[in-house]
Specification:
The protein is an all-alpha fold and 130 residues long. It contains seven helices and no strands. Helix 2 crosses helix 4, helix 2 crosses helix 6 and helix 6 runs antiparallel to helix 7.
Length: 130
């Protein structure tokens, strides 16, 4: 009797690999810039193109590594990155909403969105009110 193992796609693969995650990050940042509840935190980066590109790259690298993709994240940890920003729970929810706008724009399925939400929710303690 022959058995066939079906390999389930990793979250990295379901998000479209590095290129898909890059598109999601670009779309999320664009949504943050347009979101009046949080755009004051993001609009200053419009004048700092290199810094914004670096933040986006670190975000892509973080999600690639965290979703099962190749490579290792070498940026700062979430607590260090967000300490002193005093991000409110409401602001964090707006960020999550914007990420979901980006996921919808890239036609990410519901099961994958649930997995992304679980990751985002697991990070909240390292980001909110630090």
């Amino acid at each position: 009797m022959e058995t066939t193992l079906i390999k389930e796609a990793t979250l990295f693969e379901r998000l479209g690999g590095r290129s898909g995650i890059s598109l999601i990050v670009d779309d999320a940042v664009d949504a943050h810039m347009k979101n009046p509840a949080i755009n004051a935190r993001f609009l200053p980066y419009m004048k700092e193109a290199e810094h914004l590109a670096k933040i986006k790259q670190h975000t892509v690298d973080f999600f690639v590594a965290g979703s099962g993709g190749p490579g290792k994240y070498s940026g700062r940890d979430m607590l260090t990155t967000h300490t002193g920003m005093n991000i409110s729970p409401a602001e964090y929810m707006h960020v999550i909403d914007d990420i979901f706008i980006a996921l919808d724009k890239q036609s990410i399925n519901e099961e994958t969105k649930k997995d992304v939400l679980a990751i985002l929710w697991s990070l909240k303690g390292m980001i909110i009110s630090k």
